[in-house]
Amino acid sequence: MPRSLKRVVVTGLGLVTPLGNDVAGNWDALMAGRSGIDRITHFDSQALGLPVHIAGEVRDFDPARYIEKREIKKMDTFTYYAIAAAQEAVDDAQLRMEGLVSERVGVLLGVGMGGLATMEEGVRVFLESGIKRVTAFLVPRLIANMASSQVGIRFGARGVNFVTTSACASGGHGVGEAFRNVTLGLQDVVLAGGAEAVVTPLGIAGFAVMRALSTRNDEPARASRPFERDRDGFVLAEGAGILVLEELEHARRRGARIYAEVVGYGANSDAYHITAPAPEGEGAARCMRLALADAELAPGDVDYINAHGTSTPYNDLNETQAIKRVFGSHANSLAVSSTKSMTGHTMGAAGGIEAAYTVLALHHQVLPPTINYEQADPECDLDYVPNRARPARVRAALSNSFGFGGANACLAFRRWE
Questions:
Q1: Does residue 282 carry a pLDDT above 70?
Q2: At residue 2, does pLDDT exceed 60?
Q3: Active-site hit among 168, 287, 380, 410
Q4: What angle do CA 389, 174, 169 make, to 5 degrees?
Q5: Which of 155, 226, 279, 365 has the highest CB neighbour count under 10 A?
Q6: Which residues, including other chains, have CB under 8 Å from residue 292's CB and lie 6 or more apart?
Q7: Calpha distance 234→236 (Å, rounded)
Q8: CA distance 265 to 412
Q9: d(CA 133, CA 13)
Q10: What is the model's pTM?
Q11: Would residue 173 show up in a list of annotated catalytic residues for this protein?
């Protein structure tokens, strides 16, 4: 049955990242070009013989600020972050659940790896002490969908509820699928984004043996340097970013403040390799074209791209090539920045966090920078907003998320006037 498509707007934002535990703290750090990357404190990486000793950790976070004490033991850290970001987003949107139809309020979050710390601890306890010492909360803590489930339980949101798991594209797919649910008229409101907490011994070890991580251990704040000549890998990080997506007329009826409009979503696959992207950005380019077509935007309408920009040699080049394929000569007029230069790579949470940053850039008409940009790479030759935030006229913007296995997501936003 044909449906008339609904317009979708962003009415609330919530963030927990290495840059701060709220939206204001994140925006201040982005505008100052301040890195959230430092020495690992969650565990002793040197004692474990790991080659990487830096990460983007969430700091000064107390789950008891958001969660009842008796509930804390039932959750992994990634769920703590999801609940904290969701609470800020709901408060920011001034949503009152008692005034909403609960069956038309959903939660769609991206989670790449779930409760890795819970899994590590569970295995240790089982091998050392046997089954009697394994917590009954092992499975509810580690399974990925507990991020969305616990948020849904907290707010009594009885609509659509699941997680998207597509590696580093998970959060982008979470926001995109939420957009689809609202634009099709299936939901009035969806809390959408991503959450992740894999700065653990096994998390560091797994990516380190792939040679994916930066080993700039003596200069943590300078380690993540997307698109820069001397980039040597990404910095593993953690956090959550959640947006309140709302049907436009629903938002207007309750007098909601609107940050930006969500206008398009692209999702596809490279179908090429388990870790490497398709050559010359072929898959990423198709994904951006899908988002532009869905948004009914021409390439020349886009002023800014929040890039996936991981700080790995191959991926940054690949994304640059993809942007050139899609935007042609307009690529030279685009501003492209990677906020991972400050946050590190938050994995499944990245798409949610960076969608929120893109919305803030549209709302404030200021572009976040790519910090640590010191030496230009001749093959990465776009305007990466080097080192300093920049006021700019931004009419429309894209947020890119690309993951292992060839998973691609691209979100299109338009300034709200």
A1: yes
A2: no
A3: 168
A4: 65
A5: 226
A6: 264, 266, 298, 299, 302, 326, 398, 412
A7: 6
A8: 6
A9: 40
A10: 0.97
A11: no
Report DSSP letters for 102-115, one per residue.
GGGEEEEEE-SS--
Taking alpha carbons only, the member of 299, 358, 351, 294 closest to residue 325 is 299
| Angstrom distance (rounded) from CA 369 to CA 335 | 10
For 150: left if phi > 0, alpha if psi spans -120 to 50, otherwise beta; the answer is: alpha
Among 149, 203, 162, which residue's Cα sits nearest to residue 347? 203
CA 311 to centroid of chain Cα atoms: 16
Per-residue pLDDT tens for 235-277? Answer: 999 999 999 999 999 999 999 999 999 999 999 999 999 999 9
> CA–CA separation, 159 vs 145, rounded Å?
15
Closest CA to 50 of 199, 197, 223, 196: 199
Annotate 330-384 with DSSP letters as a single string.
GGGT-EEE-THHHH-B-GGGHHHHHHHHHHHHHHHTEEPPB-S--SBBTTB-SB-
Encode pLDDT of 53-109 as tens digits: 999 999 999 999 999 999 999 999 999 999 999 999 999 999 998 889 999 999 999
Torsion sign (Cα): 380, 289, 283, 18: positive
Encode 205-221: b = buried (16+ Cβ within 10 Å), e = exposed.
bbbbeeebbbebbeebe
- The SS3 of residue 86 is helix
CB atoms within 10 A of CB 68: 9
- Give the integer Cα–Cα distance in Å for 111 and 49: 28
Annotated catalytic residue within 250, 308, 380, 410 = 308
DSSP 395: S
Residue showing tokens 């931004």: 394
Given the residues 287, 345, 380, 410, the one annotated as active site: 345
**Rounded Cα gap, residues 370 and 383, in angstroms:** 10
Q: Are 269 and 407 in contact (CB under 8 A)?
A: yes
Is 308 considered catalytic here? yes
